């Protein structure tokens, strides 16, 4: 080891320059992390492959400014030098530095860190008079040369730099080491990677623009972080997350404070920040610091009805009494993400400088300010949706500056809009990479997958002893759960078995597939497509518990007393199964009803054999039903809720396919399967919680806050019903009683309100909550988790690993991999909860998108499908909120407009606008004008006209306009809305396909979706049980949305 000195010039926090001399040790051996290493380096962890054409060594400037390009997973063999990494840390701050560190850690990215300044032969001391930049570039070049030599000339090295002098100086110095600019590199090696070229252009333009900024201040400077921290400590400032009101994005933003971090007790409430100047460049989601204004300047929030406000959860309507109001003095953490923006038409172009134009692009999310983008493509991108990132927001700039990342397509087209929804919800679902797919087992006609002998030895083999079968929707491909039931001990005992696909056998923890599944966290269901969490070879094949083939499973087997059904013994573990029957719901129900049916698996048998087998199967199904009824009754006594009941049953008379999906009556078998799954989830939760009291993953459903029930209670009272919300049992019972025989919609809307009042069910780590908080309110269970759908939920995969570890411990074995600590697990559960919320939002948005696309094609004035029946479920200051059952749409209906006109009802019920006033009461709202008074009461049925409120930059929305205060009766509205919904999706998809075909024919298109993206629109059959379970588990979404997800699954299932 050699000691040298290293001189650093640092800036102190007060801005003084300090010269620091540090001892610097260099050594001969510093790992190269290359598979081609000839020198026996200590290469732990990620290693660059040896079969590439070259390695890339980016210069400091490239890493600092163009890191996004290096993040393309296509780019392989990247060596980040220590010099470059330190430069990022110093010049770009923690966030960017962490981003680089994550990149280095992520095995899906083929890049490594080389500690070049510790390597004896690559280190070069700074020369006298040499600028910092020149020296850094020399260091990076020296590192590139070192690699070439260290790998004995077997690998060419390409150094990329934006320093033209360096290109001139170094490019011909050493053979095998090339020095090129980023642009040359991309055009020589990555011609086809258009996205990278576009990104390069937009970043370089943004950098150019930055240099030509003005100096006039538009905003107050932010205070330095020391002052902010001191101010928060002293109580002068308040810290919180900026939350912009999406309906009044220009004016209203709330600071949601973290109660615990806030000393000031009378400020447990949120702080209002009014207007752009007070917001002082903070963007929705940033962690900011505010100072309060004097009380005389406090103001209230606006409370009247605005667009799309129907789905907000508030206990009481906020009256506009003044609340603490403040202004932003500093920002602790920026939470900028990728934003989808729309490029405005030509005339809005702001300024031109040299060869580029500065455009104020409008974000799709109304809460985000306009972003200034410099581009040469302003014309081509008009009315296109583009992904952008914000680079900076200086006090001299009215708007933030950013650069474009990629073009999604023309606004309003189905694919563009779907991609927009994904990006706006941070859903990143690229096709599975080659490296990920390489980890997958092979199952092909030439090389069929077989059970491994070692697995036969280590698993409990149920193939000869247990009659295993599955019950799924007709045509289901991915069977992730199967059941078995048999008598033991001469009929004294019953043995119930639930056998779940053993996904974690195929997906080891930490593998690329595992990391990808973890980051997706769930399969995403949109209205017309889904994005799987796992590659198809697992989800549709080797993990699908198909009939007649050997499969690995994770099983729970209960021994129950045949009379009392008390559990006498539970066994958990890995098994080997072969499902005998792949039943669908109707078939299973027909067998239970002892109807004459054909079981395909029995077709080849002789009549005697067939009868015997059929009797055996029917008996098993009957036993199963018997057990499930008992389990359900047990939970019902505990207070299990079924808020969706009416909702789903109302669809009974639809086409027969849909009838098949209705839980409960008439197909009890749905409930039987679901009950067994809930039971398995419950027992697995108990097992892992007991074994790992501080680090097990469970799922709880917190009891709702009573104030959220006020709307439900008051509305029900208006109709003469009493809703008791004191417990889940009381709520369930009183909802069951609140039935209006004249109008089934009343009960449905009450259940909708109840669901809306619910909190969400969430995953958590047992170490992070106290035992009382484990309770699942909706299912009325003290312990619950997700175990039964590992193919589409990452939480279940974690639970499978925990259960395996628990079983191993019982056997005296220590777990193969260290378990996540409570803290790590809690972080993972937060991530999964966030992803689940994103999945729900994306699903909801995709359904709204389809609704809008459907109505966009119609003329609301002439098309009868634009007129529908609606029921009032809430009263607001200037209108009502209604539910349109035919289309599953909820939204506001205004009774007063901006011109001071109100809706009045004529003799025949027809509505007109006239000058007048509106008055709100608790159960009704009245409009008064010269011709008299009209009243609209809760649960009234009215007729609305549905039209599309188009928006170029944001999502379109539906506009509901009252045309009559009488119910709408037509042939169509008598049909169950379910049918309308699936037709709606089908029709829109068809239209979109036609449009895209025509466009292709014309072959005059702007940027298009890649082929992969199209191929990725998967349409495999989803698992129905899991869906039912989700619905039963309630409180995930409002009932409308639950039904929606129900419908979209049905759509993919039956198309
Ligand atoms: Zn080496």
Strand and helix map with partners:
Blueprint: E1 2-11, E2 17-26, E3 54-58, H1 60-70, E4 78-81, H2 82-105, E5 111-114, H3 132-150, E6 156-160, H4 164-170, E7 177-180, H5 182-189, H6 194-211, H7 225-234, E8 237-244, E9 252-257, E10 271-274, H8 276-279, E11 287-292, E12 325-333, E13 339-342, E14 351-353, E15 356-363, E16 371-375, E17 384-392, E18 401-410, H9 414-424, H10 434-438, H11 453-458, E19 460-461, E20 468-472, E21 481-488, E22 493-501, H12 503-506, H13 512-520, E23 524-525, E24 530-531, H14 536-542, E25 550-561, E26 567-578, E27 581-584, H15 585-592, H16 607-638, H17 645-649, H18 656-659, H19 668-691, E28 697-700, H20 710-718, H21 728-737, H22 744-757, E29 762-765, H23 794-810, H24 822-856, E30 867-876, E31 879-884, E32 889-894, E33 901-905, E34 911-920, E35 924-929, E36 932-937, E37 941-949, E38 957-964, H25 971-974, H26 977-1002, H27 1011-1015, H28 1024-1033, H29 1039-1054
Parallel strand pairs: 3-6, 4-5, 6-7, 10-12, 16-18, 19-26, 20-27
Antiparallel strand pairs: 1-2, 8-9, 8-11, 9-10, 11-12, 13-15, 13-17, 14-15, 15-16, 17-18, 20-21, 21-22, 22-25, 23-24, 25-26, 28-29, 30-31, 30-37, 31-32, 33-34, 34-35, 35-36, 37-38
Helix pairs in contact: 1-2, 1-6, 9-24, 16-19, 19-23, 19-28, 20-22, 24-26, 26-29, 28-29
Keywords: Cytoplasm, Exonuclease, Exosome, Hydrolase, Magnesium, Nuclease, RNA-binding
Region (Disordered): 303-324, 993-1015
Domain RNB: 459-809
């Amino acid at each position: 080891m050699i000691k040298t000195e290293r001189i650093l010039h640092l800036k102190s926090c007060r801005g003084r320059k300090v010269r620091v001399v540090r001892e610097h040790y260099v050594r001969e051996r510093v790992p190269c992390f290359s598979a081609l290493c000839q020198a026996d380096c200590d290469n732990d962890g990620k290693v660059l492959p040896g079969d590439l054409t070259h390695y890339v060594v980016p210069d400091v400037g490239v890493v600092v400014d163009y890191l996004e390009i290096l993040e393309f997973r296509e780019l392989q063999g990247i060596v980040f030098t220590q010099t470059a990494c330190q430069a990022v840390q110093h010049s770009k701050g923690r966030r960017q530095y962490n981003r680089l560190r994550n990149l280095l850690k992520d095995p899906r990215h083929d890049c490594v860190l080389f500690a070049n300044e510790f390597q004896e032969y690559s280190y070069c001391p700074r020369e006298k008079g040499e600028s910092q930049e020149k020296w850094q570039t020399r260091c990076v070049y020296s590192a590139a040369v070192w690699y070439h030599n260290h790998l004995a000339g077997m690998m060419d090295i390409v150094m990329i730099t934006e320093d033209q002098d360096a290109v001139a100086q170094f490019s011909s110095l050493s053979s095998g080491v090339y020095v090129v600019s980023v642009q040359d590199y991309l055009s020589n090696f990555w011609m086809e990677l258009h996205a990278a070229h576009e990104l390069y252009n937009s970043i370089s333009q943004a950098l150019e623009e930055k240099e030509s900024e003005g100096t006039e201040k538009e905003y107050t400077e932010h205070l330095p972080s020391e002052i902010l921290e001191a101010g928060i400590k002293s109580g002068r400032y308040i810290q919180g997350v900026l939350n912009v009101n999406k309906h009044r994005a220009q004016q209203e933003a709330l600071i949601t404070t973290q109660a615990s971090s806030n000393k000031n007790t009378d400020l447990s409430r949120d702080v209002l920040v009014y207007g752009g100047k007070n917001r002082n460049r903070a963007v929705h989601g940033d962690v900011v610091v505010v100072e309060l204004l004097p009380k005389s300047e406090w103001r209230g929030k606006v409370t009247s009805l605005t667009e799309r406000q129907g789905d907000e959860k508030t206990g009481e309507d906020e009256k506009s009494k003044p609340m603490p109001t403040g202004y932003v003095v500093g920002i602790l953490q920026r939470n900028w993400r990728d934003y989808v923006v729309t490029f405005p038409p030509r005339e809005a172009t702001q300024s031109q400088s040299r060869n580029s134009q500065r455009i104020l692009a409008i974000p799709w999310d109304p809460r985000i300010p306009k972003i200034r983008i410099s581009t040469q493509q302003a014309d081509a991108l008009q009315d296109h949706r583009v992904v952008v990132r914000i680079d900076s927001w200086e006090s001299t700039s009215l708007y933030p500056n950013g650069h474009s990342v990629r073009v999604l397509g023309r606004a309003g087209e189905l694919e563009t809009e779907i991609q927009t929804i994904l990006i706006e919800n941070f859903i990143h679902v690229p096709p599975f990479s080659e490296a990920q797919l390489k980890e997958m087992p092979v199952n092909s006609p030439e090389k069929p997958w077989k059970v491994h002998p070692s697995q036969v030895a280590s698993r409990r083999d149920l193939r000869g002893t247990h009659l295993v079968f599955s019950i799924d929707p007709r045509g289901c491909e991915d069977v992730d759960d199967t059941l078995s039931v048999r008598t033991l001990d001469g009929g004294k005992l019953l043995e119930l078995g639930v056998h779940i696909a053993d996904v974690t056998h195929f997906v080891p923890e930490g593998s690329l597939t595992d990391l990808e599944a973890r980051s997706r966290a769930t399969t995403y269901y949109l209205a017309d497509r889904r994005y799987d969490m796992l590659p198809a070879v697992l989800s549709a094949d080797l993990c699908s518990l198909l009939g007649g083939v050997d499969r690995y499973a994770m099983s729970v087997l209960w021994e129950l007393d045949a009379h009392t059904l008390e559990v006498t013994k539970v066994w958990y573990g890995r098994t080997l199964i072969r499902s005998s029957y792949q039943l669908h719901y109707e078939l299973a129900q027909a067998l239970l009803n002892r109807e004459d049916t054909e079981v395909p698996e029995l077709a080849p048998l002789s009549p005697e054999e067939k009868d015997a087998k059929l009797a055996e199967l029917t008996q098993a199904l009957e036993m199963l039903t018997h057990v499930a009824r008992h389990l359900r009754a047990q939970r019902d006594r505990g207070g299990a809720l079924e808020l969706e009941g009416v909702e789903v049953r109302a669809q009974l008379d639809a086409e027969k396919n849909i009838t098949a999906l209705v839980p409960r009556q008439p197909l009890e078998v749905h409930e039987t399967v679901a009950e067994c799954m809930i039971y398995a989830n419950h027992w697995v939760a108990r097992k892992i919680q007991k074994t790992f009291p501080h680090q097990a993953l469970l799922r709880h459903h917190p009891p709702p806050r009573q104030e959220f029930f006020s709307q439900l209670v008051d509305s029900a009272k208006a109709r003469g019903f009493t809703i008791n919300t004191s417990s889940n049992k009381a709520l369930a019972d009183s909802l069951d009683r609140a039935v209006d025989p004249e109008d089934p919609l009343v009960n449905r809307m009450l259940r909708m309100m109840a669901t809306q009042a619910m909190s969400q069910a969430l995953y958590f780590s047992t170490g992070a909550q106290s035992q009382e908080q484990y309770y699942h309110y909706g299912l009325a269970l003290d312990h619950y988790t997700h175990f039964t759908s590992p193919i589409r939920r990452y939480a279940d995969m974690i639970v499978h690993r925990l259960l395996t570890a628990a079983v191993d411990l019982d056997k005296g074995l220590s777990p193969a991999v260290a378990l996540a600590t409570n803290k790590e697990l809690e972080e993972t559960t937060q991530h999964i909860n966030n992803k689940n919320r994103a999945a729900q939002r994306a699903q909801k948005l995709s359904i709204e998108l389809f609704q809008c696309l459907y109505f966009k094609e119609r003329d609301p004035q002439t098309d009868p499908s634009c007129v529908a029946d609606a029921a009032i479920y809430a009263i607001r200051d200037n209108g009502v909120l209604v539910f349109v059952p035919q289309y599953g749409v909820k939204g506001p209906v205004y009774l007063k407009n901006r011109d001071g006109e109100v809706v009045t009802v004529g003799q025949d019920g027809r509505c007109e606008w006239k000058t007048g006033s509106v008055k709100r009461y608790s159960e009704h709202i009245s409009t008064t004008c010269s011709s008299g008074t009209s009243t609209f009461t809760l649960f009234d049925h009215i007729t609305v006209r549905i039209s599309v409120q188009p928006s170029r930059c944001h999502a379109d929305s539906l506009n509901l306009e009252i045309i009559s205060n009488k119910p709408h009766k037509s042939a169509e509205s008598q049909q169950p809305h379910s049918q309308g919904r699936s037709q709606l999706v089908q029709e829109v998809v068809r239209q979109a396909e036609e449009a895209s075909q025509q466009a292709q024919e014309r072959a005059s298109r702007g940027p298009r979706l890649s082929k992969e993206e199209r191929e990725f629109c998967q349409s495999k059959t989803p698992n129905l049980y899991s869906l039912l379970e989700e619905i039963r588990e309630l409180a995930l979404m409002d009932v409308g949305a639950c039904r929606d997800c129900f419908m979209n699954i049905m759509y993919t299932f039956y198309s």
